[in-house]
Amino acid sequence: MLSPLSLTVIYFGSNSTTIASILVQEDDNDIECVIYDLSRILNNVKIKYSAIEKLCLCLYYSCTKLKYYIEPFNVQVLSHNNVIKFMLSKSILHNRIGKWALTLTKFSLTFVPLKEIKGQIVAYFLANHSNIEILECYIGIKP
């Protein structure tokens, strides 16, 4: 159960084929507890996105999937990339990032520059260790 007085944070990461994120909240002892984790394998079109677009897609995807968890809270978004800060601060952009940013305006998100934090490592781990081989077995055609 999420507590309104505790710090709520979204960590997210991406690689060439997957995006992943985790929603964490600190308990009374300042220990981060994972509330929810998400990962998604990108399709052929989204694989062609730039690295920045994949990060923005990851934030958009995470917020839309976890909207009932994060709407009532002030959520910190931690990222190495200042494009996320730009995305959250500018309301008018005319590309797909702009569309995602417009959707994110209904959430109370605050950008925080990221230094190495343990929760971010979990998001990178989820993004980099997705099980793509199993998906290929079901989709691929054996000769």
What does the radius of gyration come to? 16 Å
Q: Strand share of the residues?
A: 25-35%
CATH superfamily caption: Ribonuclease H-like superfamily/Ribonuclease H
Helix content: 40-55%
Mind describing the biggest β-sheet? 5 strands, mixed
SS elements, strand count:
5
- Structural class label: alpha/beta
SSE order: EEEHHHEHHEHH
- Note the gap between the termini: 50 Å
> What is the number of independent domains?
1
Task: Please report the number of helical segments.
Answer: 7
CATH topology: Nucleotidyltransferase, domain 5
Strand order of the largest sheet: 3-2-1-4-5
**CATH class categorisation:** Alpha Beta
Quickly give the CATH architecture. Answer: 2-Layer Sandwich
Structural descriptors:
7 helices, disordered C terminus, alpha/beta, about 140 residues, Nucleotidyltransferase, domain 5, about 25% strand, 5-stranded mixed sheet
At a glance:
The protein is α/β, with parallel strands linked by helices and 143 residues long.
How are the SSEs placed, and which strands pair?
Layout: E1 8-14, E2 18-26, E3 32-41, H1 44-47, H2 51-65, H3 67-70, E4 74-79, H4 82-89, H5 96-104, E5 108-113, H6 118-128, H7 132-139
Parallel strand pairs: 1-4, 4-5
Antiparallel strand pairs: 1-2, 2-3
Describe what this molecule looks like in 3D.
The chain is of the alpha/beta class and 143 residues long. It has a single domain, classed as Ribonuclease H-like superfamily/Ribonuclease H (Nucleotidyltransferase, domain 5, 2-Layer Sandwich). It contains 7 helices and 5 strands, in the order E-E-E-H-H-H-E-H-H-E-H-H. A 5-stranded mixed beta sheet has the order 3-2-1-4-5. The protein is globular.
